[in-house]
Amino acid sequence: MTEYDLGSQPLVLQGLARLHEEAFGASGFALGMDEVVDIVIKRPSSTYRRGHMKLGAEIVPRERDAKYSREALSKWLDDCRALAYVPGRGTWTTAEAHVFATSSGQLNLFDEEHLDRMPNGDWYPGAKPSGAGTWAQQLLSFPRTVDNIPPWLWDIFRAEDVTPPIYNPEFKSVDWKNRRRPVTERGTDFTVEPTVIDPSLEPGIFTKISKKLFGA
Questions:
Q1: Are 183 and 140 in contact (CB under 8 A)?
Q2: What DSSP state is assigned to residue 215?
Q3: Tens digit of each residue's pLDDT (9 = 90 or more) over 124-138
Q4: Residue 18: how many CA atoms within 13 Å on its side-chain side?
Q5: Which residue of 56, 78, 104, 158 is 20 to 30 Å from 17, comparing CA positions?
Q6: Whose CA is closest to 29, among 69, 73, 59, 56?
Q7: Distance between CA 61 and CA 104 in Å, rounded?
Q8: CA pair distance 35, 55, nearest whole angstrom
Q9: Partner residues linked to 49 by β-bridges
């Protein structure tokens, strides 16, 4: 299910137009095709990407050089991720860019990691689902309130006994490991040194986290 909709934001429209030019322009890598699909999963220290082209109903594998420039796709998606962030609600994890020969296309954004397996059942290289540590880093950059972390993600944290960073609406901050940093409209402000939290003075949010993790 699509979780984020940037609609007709200029950043999205301009980015799709640039992808279209690189794919279907005079020297485009997808000339003769009907569609180019890129699926990109953003992680704190890595990006997983796969893609293909379409000719009618046929899926056409991408050659090594049949790809967009870094600025056109990866850098653009970084900007789209920050743009989509809503303090306390979070931002997307998987982006699907569909660019068509006859139109610039569309950008679909999802909460979950959209991964697939090889025919033998193994994960493709780099496609193994993220663990609690990676998800915690995601939330440190784009924090959510306790109630906006979905149940499937709480299950991952419980399984690995990890307490995630949490958005604190009272202070407009991300709180983790007795530390606090301010959060802006585009995510955590890492230019500010974290302050120390005394949990005994602010028991409310920590009690709420414990209930989510341990039911106590």
A1: no
A2: -
A3: 888 899 999 999 999
A4: 17
A5: 56
A6: 69
A7: 21
A8: 7
A9: 40
8 Å CB contact between 142 and 90: yes
**Pairing mode, strands 195-196 and 187-188:** unpaired
| CA atoms of 54 and 102, how far apart (whole Å) | 13
| pLDDT at residue 207, rounded to an integer | 66
- What's the rounded Cα separation, in Å, for the pair 199 and 205? 9
Which 8-state DSSP code applies to residue 3?
A: E
Write out the two tokens for 37: 């699909």
Q: Which residue do the tokens 């709480």 mark?
A: 154
First vs last Cα of the chain: how many Å apart? 31
Residue 76: both structure tokens together = 């653009």
Residues of the chain predicted below pLDDT 70: 1-2, 203-208, 210-212, 214-216
DSSP 135-199: HHHHHHHS-B-GGGS-HHHHHHHHHTT-PPPEEETTTTEEEETTEEEEEETTEE-TTSPPEEP-G
Residue type, 38: D
Amino acid at 98: H
For residue range 149-178, what is the model confidence (pLDDT) as tens digits? Answer: 999 999 999 999 999 999 999 999 999 999
**3-state secondary structure at position 45:** coil
